[in-house]
Write a structure and sequence with these properties.
Ppm1/Ppm2/Tcmp; transferase; alpha/beta; methyltransferase activity; transmembrane helix; seven-stranded mixed β-sheet; 2 domains; 336 residues; 12 helices; membrane; globular; Rossmann fold; 43% helix
């Protein structure tokens, strides 16, 4: 599933100035679109679907329309989201896309691959590249592809036709009901994907997966994106141990927070905790931020039977400035 740029990104300062000037001039339209968008979401109410699952989909939708990461499935799926007003979305996104077409400038959040240091505001954008790169690297060498906490992930629908890998998506029943209806309405074929409903904190998801046709003896790529921070430690360790119990050489790719976002008194993290709590998905878990946080992560993985093979620390990792998260890849060490 290799990705390539499909648009020329102009980095000249004058292009950036022109882009943001045009966006400023059209800001009344963007504001109206945003108000319509949020108003419809509030009026529609909660559908039982994870709100945090919609953010990554919107980011992939934006990158597709800026021409930096092709994802036709994300482009279609956004329009089918529950409570998304088409007019509001067009008003909110249209001016920015027009400014891009006139100037050639792409905002940093939607560049692919992501460039430079990763701040908390750009975590979702940067992790898309990290996860895509992992899929490109490991998918040719596995027999199964499992997306844990899949939400509205669209990677399963972008695989080349005839890919000899069986694909599973694991998530809550309500999220899967809504997603499957969205896929149908968007005209996206999901017949090659096996949907497995399970709650990581309540169910034995591996037993559910096995009952659906998953073979623990076959090497597998597990994707676990944007999930760990919303689970308790017991569920995290249980999930890692279950992955470690599968075939030797199976790989899990995941992102994580440290304890910094859960404890920091900085305004950004206080607002972040309040917003996720209001959405019914409070932050629960973080890797010990005592530096070096990479070692704290490696210790957790070893205790669960996994070996850390690739990792990217997010934020400074010193005595005075603690890392706030990271991206990681770990491998199952179980003997064949």
């Amino acid at each position: 599933m290799p990705m390539k740029l499909v648009a020329t990104i102009t980095d000249r300062p004058v292009s950036g100035v022109a882009y943001y000037l045009l966006c400023t001039l059209m800001s009344p339209l963007i504001l109206i679109g945003y108000i319509v968008f949020v108003g419809k979401a509030i009026a529609t109410g909660r559908s039982g679907v994870s709100r945090t699952a919609q953010g990554p989909l919107t980011t992939r939708f934006s990158a597709h329309n800026f021409g930096t990461r092709q994802d036709w499935a994300a482009d279609r799926l956004v329009w089918a989201l529950p409570g998304v007003p088409r007019r509001g979305l067009r008003l909110a996104a249209g001016p920015m896309l027009l400014a891009h077409r006139l100037t050639g400038y792409v905002p940093r959040a939607f560049r692919y691959p992501f460039e430079g240091d990763i701040s908390p505001q750009y975590e979702v954008s940067a992790r898309i590249w990290f996860f895509d790169a992992a899929v490109d690297r490991y998918l040719p060498h596995v027999a199964q592809f499992v997306i844990l906490g899949a939400g509205f992930d669209t990677r399963a629908y972008r695989l080349p036709s005839g890919t000899p890998v069986r694909v599973f998506e694991v998530d809550s029943l309500q999220t899967q009901i809504v997603k499957r209806e969205m896929l149908k309405n968007a005209g996206i074929d999901s017949s090659e994907v096996t949907f497995v409903p399970a709650d990581f904190e309540k169910d034995d998801w591996l037993s559910c997966l096995t009952a659906a046709g998953f073979d623990p003896a076959k090497r597998t790529l597990f994707l676990w994106e944007g999930v760990t921070m919303y689970l308790d430690r017991e569920a995290i360790e249980d999930t890692l141990r279950k992955i470690a119990s599968t075939a030797h050489g199976s790989v899990v790719v995941f992102d994580y927070f440290t304890t910094e976002p859960l404890e920091s008194r900085a305004l950004y993290w206080r607002c972040g905790r309040a917003s996720t709590k209001a959405a019914g998905e409070p932050l629960k878990f973080g890797i010990d931020s005592t530096p070096p946080s990479r070692e704290r992560l490696a210790e957790l993985l070893r205790s669960c039977g996994l070996s850390l093979s690739d990792q990217r620390t997010l934020g400074q990792d010193t005595r005075t400035r603690r890392a706030w998260g990271g991206f990681a890849t770990a491998t199952a060490q179980k003997s064949s």
